[in-house]
User: Fold this.
Amino acid sequence: MEMYRRTFAEINLDHLAHNIRVLQKAFPQKFLCPMVKANAYGHGDVQLGRFLEGLGIAHLGVCLIEEGILLRKNGVKAEILVFRGFDREGAEKIIEYQMTPVVSSWDHIEHLEAVATTAVGIHLKFDTGMNRLGFRPEEAQKVFDRLWQNKKIRLKALLTHLFNGDDAENPTGDSARQLQALDRVSQIFKPFNIFCHSLNSAGILSFLKMQKSAVPANHPLALQDWGLRPGLMIYGYNPLADQSFCDLKPVMSLKSHVGVYRHVKSGETVSYGGTWKAKQNSVIAVVPIGYADGYHRILSNQAQVLFAGQRVPVVGTICMDYLMLDVTSVVQGQDLNKFKDQEVTFFGFDNAGNFLSAEELAEKARSITWEMLTSVGERVPRVYSGGR
Ligand SMILES: Cc1ncc(COP(=O)(O)O)c(C=O)c1O
Assistant:
């Protein structure tokens, strides 16, 4: 791979395999559909799609038809669920590339009926509280009537999406109500012999946590054999407050190398707007990564990075292609040649195994871990390790 700037995202496939094994071991029988939308949360959808297939994964979730086509064109054979809606042209592409549409409106049914020549397998989405996509539970009987003995459409599963999965442990919480609602809908669809999937990472991890003792039989999480659609957790992050019960391994490490060092005198400022002023004579490392690479500008004067095994602050305003670090405390009194091309880790693991969490960075950026991972820019090469 051509890389004249040594800024890259290291993707550790052994860590991904570990996270998948956590799921396969805890839930050997359940429907498992890892979400590889948005370029596999920034990790590289083609590489991960192929790798996940090798781990025995039979279903993959994408948002866009384009994402599914890319996987197919690169040899991915797994069943691909397309979550975003589609028009007639989109329906044709879904059929051409043998993908499974998630149907969430009457329009979708019409488009499929218009273009299908044989029965297309679908998953049917119900909106149980997210208020984004899906049929209303009140429409369930009408949808049943439209699909029953439909020659163009074959219903395979029902789904819903939790909007507050963190509360899934609570038997009277938002998630519980959503699961109960889907369960009621599924009674109507029983003649189809379908299953239901509903759990995102927060829901899955809540279930896993409860399993450590025993999930009460009447708990909404135990109402059915809910299928799993993990996103964030397969990439190594647990979105719940309690992290103690499950060991996930972060997959992506965002890294670069110092380009140059500058000596600034006490009182001098660094970068646009002079937002950081040296309180002492300082050594500043200039690193070739910026907001155009997905390292958010809001982290200016906020974030820390790993430099030579230690945390150092990002100082001054983050530029489009560069940012600056105050490395004085680490390099003081030493020959700077010792730190030539020094590796810098923005999140993930450095070469010595020290860790800086993308979750911590997200908090500082007033964002979420999902956004930190998916924002890593297209011009940052993904470098894969492990997985053999
Ligand atoms: C429909 C659907 N299912 C599952 C997921 C996975 O969510 P998470 O990354 O929180 O596990 C998403 C992500 O946004 C989604 O949109």
User: Anything to note?
Assistant: The two ends are 19 Å apart (CA to CA). The mean pLDDT is 97. The chain has two domains: 13-235, 252-385.
